[in-house]
Design a protein that fits this description.
375 residues, Aspartate Aminotransferase, domain 1, 3-stranded antiparallel sheet, globular, binds pyridoxal-5'-phosphate
Length: 375
């Protein structure tokens, strides 16, 4: 097996993959309607439930062919009964995306907004639930990938349940990295896609959620044909297959990624992401960069960094210099503030971050940006 040129992706997914995962895509051609392939998907779905500690009698994983946004679309349009309302606890770009999905489907919704650099005010969430008994679904984002802010999902889930609502969480940027336990974290539905925490490829997304609630949703208005949770679930239950063509090669890669996930282990993998994130924070500190999110509210996977005020600073030029050296950095996602992001996803470790900061230092010197950077 020849080594593939290794790029260090510090963007918020797709993430750096191992060569064994890359090569797992190279398999003999197979029609995905063969029993052999359905058998592979069964094990895959079971593993996806196990990663978040779901009881397979209660939780199931439903696979979709698409990027991660598809999961948000599927959950919101499929799990809302007629004449009921969605509450989006919104403090960032990804919860805003959920609001846009509600708008696109014409779903009654409350967009409960909080500042992007703060955890939500739980008392206000509770007051909203109390005043609006029509709320049937509460949605939020675990790690707001736009800023790296961690949301208190366990507390939000407990509130949702106290007021009789279903709790759906966008865990796309924590799943298989920051440990999640659907029982303790009060999660009815969570979601992710293969190219982030699992360190596989784009094209496979999945919702992990309660079977009973999916079965109930068969009676809800069908607002999408392709993106309907019950239809896809029902097809898996009856045939073991996706309703339509699955992303065959990504599924083979993801099976290998899962073998590597179990070999590294939940605790070992989270420890690695944590030391990578700490190395990122330390490197930023040493160069004088300021982060947006205060340390105790960081999810430990995405550093959101303010642009320095140096006249020679140009994000594009810094990006290009890093890219030429094999490192990808990413723009921020906060309107009204100029930021960039460095993420601790993927098959990388501390030496990669040390190498990145040597490269960044070179690029800053080349551009004449003063170090430590100025604000
Ligand atoms: C990456 C991500 C998504 C999905 O984005 P796609 O571009 O559709 O893959 C959704 N939610 C969060 C929180 C994410 O980080």
């Amino acid at each position: 097996m020849e080594a593939v040129k290794r790029n260090i992706l510090l963007n918020p997914g797709p993430s750096t993959t191992t060569d064994t995962v890359k090569y797992a895509q190279v398999v003999p051609d197979i029609c995905p309607r063969e029993a052999e392939f359905a058998g592979l998907m069964k094990g895959l779905r079971e593993d996806l439930v196990k990663i978040v500690h779901g009881d397979p009698a209660i939780y199931t994983a439903v696979l979709f062919c698409g990027s991660g946004t598809m999961n948000i679309d599927v959950c919101l349009n499929s799990l809302l009964p007629a004449d009921r309302t969605v509450l989006v606890v919104n403090n960032g770009a990804y919860s805003t995306r959920a609001v846009e999905i509600c708008r696109a489907y014409g779903l009654p919704h409350i967009d409960l907004r909080f500042p992007v650099d703060e955890q939500p005010d739980l008392a206000l969430v509770e007051q909203t639930l109390r005043e609006h008994p029509e709320i049937a679904l509460v949605h939020t984002t675990h790690n707001e990938t736009g800023t790296g802010l961690l949301n208190p999902i366990r507390e939000l889930g407990a509130l949702a349940h106290r007021y009789g609502a279903v709790f759906t969480v966008d865990t796309t940027s924590t799943y298989a990295m920051r440990p999640i336990d659907v029982n303790r974290d009060n999660i009815d539905f969570c979601m992710a896609s293969a190219q982030k925490g699992l360190m596989s490829f784009t094209g496979l997304s999945f919702v992990v959620g309660r079977r009973e609630l999916i079965e109930q949703s068969a009676a809800y208005p069908m607002r999408s044909y392709y993106c309907n949770l019950f239809l896809q679930y029902d097809n898996f239950e009856k045939t073991g297959e996706m309703h339509f063509t699955p992303p065959v090669q990504t599924i083979y890669a993801t099976l290998q990624a899962l073998r590597e996930y179990w070999a590294e282990g939940e605790a070992g993998k989270w420890a690695r992401h944590t030391r990578v994130f700490e190395a990122i924070c330390q490197g930023l500190d040493e160069l004088g960069f300021r982060q947006v999110i205060r340390p105790e509210w960081r999810a430990g996977l995405v550093a959101s960094v303010r642009y320095p005020s140096d006249p020679n600073w140009s994000f594009q030029a810094v990006h290009d210099g890093c890219y030429r050296r094999g490192f990808t950095i990413y723009p921020g996602k906060i309107s009204g503030a100029d930021t960039f992001r460095l993420c601790a996803l993927g098959a990388i470790d501390v030496p990669d971050i040390e190498a990145f900061f040597r490269a960044l230092r070179e690029v800053l010197d080349e551009l004449g940006v003063k170090v430590p950077v100025q604000y």
